[in-house]
Amino acid sequence: MTMKAAVGFSESTDSRDAAAEAARQAVEQLDGDPCRLVFLFGTAKHDPALIREGVRSVVGAEPPLFGGSAVGVITNERMG
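and the corresponding structure tokens:
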């Protein structure tokens, strides 16, 4: 089985919107393949429950979610 990884990022101050935006970006990179696992990180300024809601609104109820608070996030293209 081939494994794909994708990354999403948002600077929105609204926890749910930021999580949904980042999840949409990542899902788009999967080119139609299903999302099977989510690693998510948000700053301490975000509400964890709203982050979960935002991600779930995009990926659905099936993929397990792992992650937590982070001081910042660095991707290949962004830093926050």
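(Above: one complete record from the training split.) The chain is about 35% helix and 10% strand.
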